[in-house]
């Protein structure tokens, strides 16, 4: 598997975590020190990986259980050694998000270290 394919696999795990409302998948996709940051409802929000995982896990029924279609797109991936940056778009909880993800390769595995989110529109 190429580095890009490995990164895309981690990003897909992140997408799947939201689709299945899985805290365990969030924990696997994100570094333990990761931050999730952006503006929501006009206010600055910053979450730890655990806070984000708890939020994702609390969405019941999950989008998958609700029969919703997973709408995601990887727009770009740039790799520089053991670091990478990706721009992705996803629809989640009625919003269309444009995320900028910073990834790092730790113990031969790519994980998301930082997620900056921007809400493009309500879905």
Can I get a quick summary?
By secondary structure, the protein is an alpha+beta fold. The protein has helices spanning 3-19, 23-29, 49-57, and strands spanning 30-40, 43-48, 72-80, 83-92, 95-106, 109-122.
Describe it.
With 123 residues, the chain is α+β, with helices and mostly antiparallel strands. The protein is 27% helix and 50% strand. The protein has helices at 3-19, 23-29, 49-57; strands at residues 30-40, 43-48, 72-80, 83-92, 95-106, 109-122. It has a 6-stranded mixed sheet with strand order 2-1-6-5-4-3. Strand 5 and strand 6 form a beta hairpin. Helix 1 (3-19) runs antiparallel to helix 2 (23-29). The longest helix is centred in the N-terminal third of the chain and has 17 residues, at 3-19. The chain is globular and about 35 Å long. It starts with a helix and ends with a strand. 28% of the residues are buried. The mean pLDDT is 96.
Residue fraction in strands = over 45%
Mean pLDDT: 96
Which regions have little confidence, pLDDT < 50, spanning 5+ residues?
none
Tally of individual helices: 3
Helix-strand pattern? HHEEHEEEE
Helix content: 25-40%
What does the overall shape look like?
globular
Structural class: alpha+beta
Number of strands: 6
- Taking strands numbered 1, 2, ... along the chain, how are they ordered across the largest sheet? 2-1-6-5-4-3
The end-to-end span amounts to: 34 Å
Largest beta sheet, briefly? Answer: 6 strands, mixed
CA-based gyration radius: 14 Å
């Amino acid at each position: 598997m190429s580095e890009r394919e490995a990164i895309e696999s981690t990003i897909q795990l992140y997408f799947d975590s939201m689709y299945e409302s899985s805290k365990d998948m969030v924990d696997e996709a994100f570094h333990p020190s990761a931050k999730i940051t952006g503006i929501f409802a006009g206010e600055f929000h910053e979450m730890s990986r655990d806070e984000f995982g708890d939020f994702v896990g609390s969405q019941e029924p999950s989008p998958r259980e609700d029969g919703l279609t997973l709408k995601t797109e990887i727009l770009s991936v740039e790799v520089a050694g053991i670091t990478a940056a990706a721009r992705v778009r996803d629809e989640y909880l009625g919003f269309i998000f444009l995320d900028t993800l910073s990834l790092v390769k730790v113990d031969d595995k790519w994980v998301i270290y930082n997620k900056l989110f921007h809400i493009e529109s309500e879905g």
